[in-house]
What we know:
Mean pLDDT of chain A: 95
Low-confidence stretches of chain A: none
CATH architecture of chain A: Alpha-Beta Barrel
Largest interface: A-B, 53 and 54 residues
Shape of chain A: globular
Number of helices of chain A: 13
Distance between the termini of chain A: 35 Å
Radius of gyration of chain A: 18 Å
Oligomer: homodimer
Order of helices and strands of chain A: HEHEHHEHEHEHEEHEEEHEHEHHH
Helix content of chain A: 40-55%
Largest sheet of chain A: 8 strands, parallel, barrel
Strand order of the largest sheet of chain A: 1-2-3-4-5-10-11-12
Amino acid sequence: MLMQRLAEGIDRTGNPSVIGLDTKTGYLPQGVTEVAEFNRGIMDALCGAVAAVKIQIAMYEERGLRGMADFFDAAEYAKEKGFIVIADVKRGDIGDTAASYSKAYLSKDCIDFVTLNPYLGYDSLQPFFEDCGRYDKGAFVLVKTSNKGCADIQNLMTEGRPLYEAVAQKVTAWGKGYMDGEYSRIGGVAGATYPGELRRIRSIMKECFLLIPGYGAQGGTAGDIAAALDGNERGILINSSRKVLLAYRKSGRDYRDAARDEVLRMREEISDAFANSRKDRQDLI
Amino acid sequence: MLMQRLAEGIDRTGNPSVIGLDTKTGYLPQGVTEVAEFNRGIMDALCGAVAAVKIQIAMYEERGLRGMADFFDAAEYAKEKGFIVIADVKRGDIGDTAASYSKAYLSKDCIDFVTLNPYLGYDSLQPFFEDCGRYDKGAFVLVKTSNKGCADIQNLMTEGRPLYEAVAQKVTAWGKGYMDGEYSRIGGVAGATYPGELRRIRSIMKECFLLIPGYGAQGGTAGDIAAALDGNERGILINSSRKVLLAYRKSGRDYRDAARDEVLRMREEISDAFANSRKDRQDLI
């Protein structure tokens, strides 16, 4: 079901990337006047080159009702084109309220995954988790984010280890009730900008997919990310947004061609880095 | 400015309550077909009896674009009627994304406060905080929520104290840069369901307003909440939602009259509890 579709999509495209449609109006190239048109163009160009897209809802909420219509347009078009769709909403609230948030996204055919914030604890995530089982959906819970300030809270030492490790353990335990084949429907978010931590998180979250932001524009490298591969050299989704959406500014080509070229370049970079990492591990044996 | 307006509104109404417009379609009484009509009726009835309303966005997001239109209708009508408006959005994301969320809510005339999630650290909150200074707005950061599961993360022991105390200290420190008269624009959310913790949080967050959910339907009492009053017997906002919105089901009266009666009853209950707490403290001296 979902987790198998995700793994197969990554195998088919040879690409563990997910493209972040964090489209601001300022990103549109000359001649494109609508966010929805730009998003559709990007998705047309990336079809077959990448299995999943992630839509950051903040950029759409910023533009009110019009923006929200564009958010759902992107999700629906993505689904039509066969992409797996992650709604990057980072919601978190108590029981009843969480159920409303879950209904807002996970009950929709066009959305496969949501991202969630763990600060309010299990009962705030449970309505989403239950909907994951009910509707064949999944969730990525924030464990270690890619920003500098993440250390303020996530690195506080708690019972001899940083908080993010405790969160990783809890999310793993909570996710055991929501297995879908060899992976749990409940994965984690762990930034590429902290490779040591990423390795620790993988060692804890063995049966979880990791959604990895921070590659490219934020400074994380493909080599850094290789640390997050699971025993089957799988189990990760690497997000890239601006470098793909804005590739046209560097190359001067049509935004769709530029985005596709950038995604294919990333795929090669990632594939090389993973091959090197495999070689390093084999040399050690 | 904002914090003074809030304090004055509470003094004028004699009521530190904030009414949560967490309106689900299932809450509408016979004869009322639209959420916007219901919300406007509630606000008409509560004018002068309470200074602030809190709009829980999840219940509106659940209904898609139509729901979001109702969310902004409620905020705009509230502003027109002179209420202080809290957008309960509990957002939290990294830099650029946080800036988009902040623009979505704090740049709007009809919204005075947002609620925020601290898990991603200071740089994820900073864009909101800066907009608070820029637009004369405020924010309440989650410290200790009212749900049972909050202990999963918020009570983890970190450097000899539970995480929520560390968060309370950080939010207090971060808020010092955003003072508006005697209060910081940056307050905390602390549930009425944990009175001991509420007292600890007040002792840490001396110059902060506390937004207190969990009163009424969730089991927190007015006596429990008295522990959160600051040195001037102020500095709190007590949220009540369902008990007010659904008061008509108990009384059989028009939903507006029933809501107003319930708010006036709450005001008396809170006022009595605070008087008793004052007396207890004086007896101790």
